[in-house]
Structures are given as C-alpha cells and as structure tokens.
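Handout, page 2. Input:
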Amino acid sequence: MTQASDTGGASDDSLNVVICGGGRTGHLNAILFKQLPGVRVSMLTQSEALIASHREGRTLAALLPDGEALQARLDAVSRHAGEVMKNADMVIITVPAQARPELLQTIAAALPADKPVHVGAIPGFCGFDWLAEKALADRPNAVIWGMKDVPHTAFDLKPGISVRMGGAKSRLYAAAHRRESAAARTALLAHLQRLYAAPVELLDDYLEITLTPGNPIMHPSVVYGLIGPYGQWQGRPLPARLCWWTDCPELGAYFLERCDEESQRLCRTLEDRLGIDLSSVKPLKQEIIEAYQDQIRDQATMLGVLRTNSAYEGIEAPLVPAEGGAGYLIDRRSRAFHEDVAYGLALLVGMARRLQVAAPHLEEIFDWHVGYMGGLRASALDYLPPAWPESNLIRMNCKS
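Output:
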C-alpha cells in the first residue's frame, strides 16, 4: 500500500479533469475540484438541466454541513464525449455500474492518445478494472483505476443548481489495474492527492476494491429484510416512506452481517489461491466505523452503526406509490437492483461459484432479487474474465 505524502501532491501545472455523470457524486466532486488552483473541470452528462444551466452561465452550489455554500462555474458541460475528452488527464466515471459499459464504449475513441489518461470510477466496485480493460483494449495509454468508496455522501440534488454534502471519509483508498506500471501508479496517486483534501492511499491489488463490502450487499440485505420472504412487509405495501439506514430493520442488519461473513470467506480463499494480501478488506462494521468515526453514535452493533451514523441520515430508499395509493413499494427500476444486484452482488456470487466458496446467504438473496426484478438483462458476469482467477496468476508470474 502506497500512502499519501504530506505535500498533498500539489503542482503548479494545470490538470484537466472530466467527470462522467451528472448525479450527486458528479455534481459534488466537480464543485470541490473547481475550488483548487489550476484544475480545469469538464462534465460529460445527459442531464438536460445541467447542460441548460451551464449554457445560461449559472454556477453550481455545494451546500455544506455547516450551512456554508461553495460556488463553481464548470469549464465545459456537454453530452458529446469529443467536446470534453480531447485534453483529459483524469476521467472520473460516476455513473451507475449498469451504465458504464456503454459509457466506456462512447469515450474510448475520444480519449487522448498522445499522453497517459487516468480513467477511473468512483466508486470502483463491480469489477470496473475488468470492464475497463476490455472496453479500452485499443487505448494502451489509459491508466485504469478505481476508488474504494465515494469521498463524501451527497444528497438533495437539484440538477444544474445545487447538491448537499453529507459526511466525509477520513481517509480515501484507491487502486490501479494490476497491469499498471509503478510509474503510472505514482502519477495516479499524485493526481488524487491534489484533488482530495483527505489522505489518499493506493492499495496493492484492485481486488481490494472489488471485494470491499458496500452497496452490493448493503442495499440487497435491507430490501430482503423488509420485503423478502421473512420480512415484515412481504407481499404488502410499506405504510410510509423510509430511509435506508435510519429505518433499517433488524432482520436486514442480520442478513447484512451474514453476507459480510461470506464475503470475508471469499477474501480468505483468494489470499490462499493467489498468494495476495487482502487484509485491507475489513468486515463491514469495522469499515464503516473507521470511515465515519465519531459521526456514529452507537458503534456496538451493525444495527446501531447503520441507524446512528449521521452521515447516513436522510438517505431515502427508492419508493413508488402502491397501486391505489395505499402505501409504497420498493422501486424495481432503482439502482439498488440494476446496479447493486446485477453488477455488484452478481459479481460476488459469480466469484464465489468460480472458487467453490460456500455463500448460502449471498446466493439466497441474489436469487430472490433476480426473481423480484424479473430476471437479469445484463450483469457483471458478462465481463468477469473467463480464465479468472488463473489469469491473475499468469499476470503475477509475468511481473515477478
């Protein structure tokens, strides 16, 4: 693991950053980056509101927890990759995992070919390294990377106008694709140090990103605990709107801990099989406590950690009115299904099956969600390398 230096990696040279995606994370990162000297920020988005706002000369606002606000006017906003990518040094993809395959195909031809361009995802889960390697096969100058989690929570987005910042991570972790050279990793770390105020550490293996517990087990476990076969609201509408974490059911926290245990079992198997160190992939409760520290009032249990984390407050679950208007249903169109299940949980289940690791709770929750969704149209299993994990061993032997 490479640790951030005290200098923050700052440089007088300009840095051209392109953010792909006009959602909460995209808005917030763009505004924060524009506070930094020498950083040029462009955005590739399909958001009509954001494009119109920029065309009209408006600034974006980040509303901070202390009541203050940061303002920023981006350098360019476009729906066309060719208009924003030509000078990119850093490309940060913030769109949901299910939108990344098409996005990468769109930007591949527009990326600069005469210099390194660092193409990464925030968060970098769902096997982004494997997806990007396949999509950017004709761009050997692309340095593929991902961040373990979003640097800050963000909510209350008004596209083209404002976004509200929630809790910030105390330390950030990123990883580069296994193929990247030491020089490429050093340059990547310097860029990330420059862009983020929190210390940044570069992990040794991208599997430390892929296997980090997060939304792929968190959202499905809560949904299963609410409306699955053992849930209080199985087969009937929820009586009122609810928040993901402050209203998390005890059963959801139970299934979450079972899934986390199985994910840890997968890590230990990979350590033995590949001879790598995945000790940075900590149990989920420990991950959350270390990330948010004193923002969590009750750190004794998983349920307490979820319900009392101030950084999680106010994050609503995706609900739609039930037929006839009596109560609410979980929205099957939300990214909790089409990202977290199809691209996150599916990958964990696929990896466990490939390695013959017992994961009964992951399997049970995945199978139920696939049925609830009406099947999978696409998933991360589409780009899980067919020769994995043997392909990892081959690459490691070539480097040694």
